[in-house]
Amino acid sequence: MDDSVRDDTAKRHTHRMSADARKRQIVEVALDLIQKHGLQGVTMSRIAAEAGIRQASLYTHFRSRKEILLAALDAIYDRIYASRMTASSENTLARLREICDHHIELWRGLGEKHHAHLLLEFVAGAPGEGLRETLAAKHLETLNEFIQIVERGKEEGKIPPQVDAERVAWFITGFAFAGDVSQTMGFQRFLDPEISGRWLDVMFKSFLEEPEPTLHQDSSPIREAVSASSLSAARSVAQGPEGGIDGESGSVERRAP
C-alpha cells in the first residue's frame, strides 16, 4: 500500500471510537483481509493500515494476531447461527428442512458476500495457524444443535422414534459443506432445484427409513464427541497456553458464539 492510500485510509478511521467499536472494526477488517488474501495474508501491519491505527494500538484491544483470528472465527459462526433462524422453533424435521432451504436462498442471494469462503479459509488454514481445536469444537457444537432438535422432537412425539439424530446432523452438515464448496468455486449449478432440491428430498426421505438391524448397539463415538464433557475438553485445549502467531504467548480467551 503506497503512502497516499495509507493516509486516506487513516483519515477515514482515526476518529475516536469506543473500545468495543474499535474491536468490532478490527475484526471486520480482518474478515475483509481473509476474503482477499487468505489467513496467511492477514498480518498485523495490514490490519493496522486498513483500520487506520498504529500497529502498536492493536495490542490495546487484542493480545495477539491469533486472538484477532479467533474473534474473526466467532464472527463467522455468528453468521452461521443467524442463517439457521426460522419462523418456527418447533423440534421437527420440517424445521430442519426449512434451515436447509434457507441455506440455498443465502447461497443464491448473497453470492460472494456469503460466509462460505471465509469459513473454508479457516478450514484449510486452521492446522498451520494453531486453530484446529477451536474450529473442531465449533463444528461439534453445530452438530450437537441438530442432534438436540431431533432428540427433543422424538421426546415430544413430533419426530418418529426410528429417526437417527446423529445421522440427521451429519447429513445436514455434509450438505451445507458441499454447498459452501460449490459457492466458493462458483458452481451455480448446485443451486438448481434438480440438484440441491433433489438432494434434500432424497436425504430427508431417508431419515424416515427403518434402520437396518445390527449385531451390536454400542454407544456412538460421535454422540460422545458432542457431549458436554467433550465440548468442554475441546474448549480447554483451545484455551490452553500456547505461542501466539506473532510471537507472543498467553492463553486465548474463549468467546461465546
Pick out its properties.
single chain, 257 residues, mainly alpha, Arc Repressor Mutant, subunit A, Tetracycline Repressor, domain 2, 2 domains, two-stranded antiparallel ribbon, 12 helices, elongated, disordered N terminus, disordered C terminus
Strand arrangement across the biggest beta sheet: 1-2
- Oligomer class: single chain
* Spatial separation of the terminal alpha carbons: 34 Å
- Biggest sheet overview: 2 strands, antiparallel
Low-confidence stretches: 3-7, 241-257
Q: How many domain modules? A: 2
Net shape: elongated
Q: Which structural category fits the helices and strands?
A: mainly alpha
CATH hierarchy class name of the largest domain: Mainly Alpha
Give the overall pLDDT as a whole number. 82
How much helicity do the residues have?
Answer: 55-70%
Count of distinct strands: 2
Query: What is the string of helix and strand elements?
Result: HHHHHHHHHHHHEE
What do we call the CATH topology of the largest domain?
Answer: Tetracycline Repressor, domain 2
DSSP strand content: under 5%
| Rg over CA atoms | 21 Å
User: So, CATH architecture of the largest domain?
Assistant: Orthogonal Bundle
Tally the helices. Answer: 12
Task: Please give a quick description of this structure.
The chain is an all-alpha fold and about 260 residues long.
Descriptive overview:
The protein is 67% helix and 2% strand. The chain is mostly helical and 257 residues long. The protein folds into two domains: 1-61, Orthogonal Bundle (Arc Repressor Mutant, subunit A), CATH 1.10.10; 76-250, Orthogonal Bundle (Tetracycline Repressor, domain 2), CATH 1.10.357. It has a two-stranded antiparallel sheet. The model is unreliable at 3-7 and 241-257 (pLDDT under 50).
